[in-house]
Amino acid sequence: MSTLSEFDDVTVESRGRLAIVRLNDPKTLNAISPRMMGGLLAALGHVESESSGFRCVILTGTGRGFCSGANLTTTGPDDILKQGDFGEVLRERYYPVLRRMRDFPMPLIAAVNGPAMGFGWSLALVGDVVMAGRGAFFQLTFSRIGLVPDGGAAWLLSRFVGFARAKELVLLAERVPADKALQWGLVNQVHDDDKLLDAACALGGELSARPTRTLALTRRACWASLDNSFDGQLELEAGLQAEAGRIGDFVEGVMAFREKREPRF
């Protein structure tokens, strides 16, 4: 049985221990706004709370798109031309979401079900496993509207595809279809559009059955490795392994192996 929780332009559907977080402004293909970022931060807080019982989260979009980038059409309080200092808007409303996703205490799957543009592409790249529908595409259009890439896009892309391709993507602003994104290592899996969510839920179910707290430590190790020296990474791993060894899941994993049964985390 599933339940639905609603936040500002974001919903959370519960499927047992799996949370499906949807950007929810389908008329704009889920364009980003400060309101949506506030809703996403609140939704992530809801998923993260111990009382929720969630052990894995899928981020996707409602309707035909994942996220079409910044909302350029709204004329209300979120009008992009009335935001003043863009840097402060990013620091106060947008970047807390990326940091929350990076530090999330459970696996995070991005299921890209259509266009992933601008900041929306960055949201997808922060996922531990990025899955895309065959009709999805990725694009950074900042250079076409007189802005620079944000959302850590240049930093993330340089580490995914290398410096030369990252510069190409941010300067030329060309579309990258799902199959090409898979070839370049920008996504992990591509599925038929109508099978994407089922595939993401299957993977989410598998991850939900694994030791969540240990997976959170593994996420920390992976993110830290992007900037750590070798010696720094070794020291971090030693500390994280000591922490993992104090978690009861380790004992259960060893006992299950010895008893030739599936572990119960």
Overall outline: globular
**Any guess at the CATH architecture of the largest domain?**
Alpha-Beta Complex
**Unreliable parts:** none
Name of the CATH first level of the largest domain = Alpha Beta
- CATH H-level homologous superfamily name of the largest domain: 2-enoyl-CoA Hydratase, Chain A, domain 1
Q: Termini distance?
A: 22 Å
What string gives the helices and strands in order?
Answer: EEEHEHEEHEEHHEHEHHHH
Strand order of the largest sheet: 1-2-3-4-5-7-10
Structural class, from helix and strand content? alpha/beta
Write down the domain tally: 2
Number of β-strand runs = 10
Helix content: 40-55%
The third-level CATH topology of the largest domain is 2-enoyl-CoA Hydratase, Chain A, domain 1
Largest sheet: 7 strands, mixed
* Average pLDDT for all residues: 94
Number of helices: 10
Based on CA atoms alone, the radius of gyration comes out at: 19 Å
How is this structure best described in words?
With 265 residues, the protein is α/β, with parallel strands linked by helices. It folds into 2 domains: 2-208, 2-enoyl-CoA Hydratase, Chain A, domain 1 (Alpha-Beta Complex); 212-258. The chain is 45% helix and 17% strand. It contains 10 helices and 10 strands. The chain has helices spanning 34-48, 86-102, 119-125, 153-161, 163-172, 178-183, 196-208, 212-225, 230-245, 248-258, and strands at residues 2-7, 10-15, 18-23, 56-61, 108-112, 115-117, 129-133, 137-139, 176-177, 189-191. It has a 7-stranded mixed beta sheet with strand order 1-2-3-4-5-7-10, sandwiched between helices. A 3-stranded mixed beta sheet has the order 6-8-9. Helix 1 links the parallel strand 3 and strand 4. Helix 4 (153-161) packs across helix 5 and helix 8 packs antiparallel against helix 9 (230-245). The chain is globular, with a radius of gyration of 19 Å. It starts with a strand and ends in a 7-residue tail after the last helix. The mean pLDDT is 94.
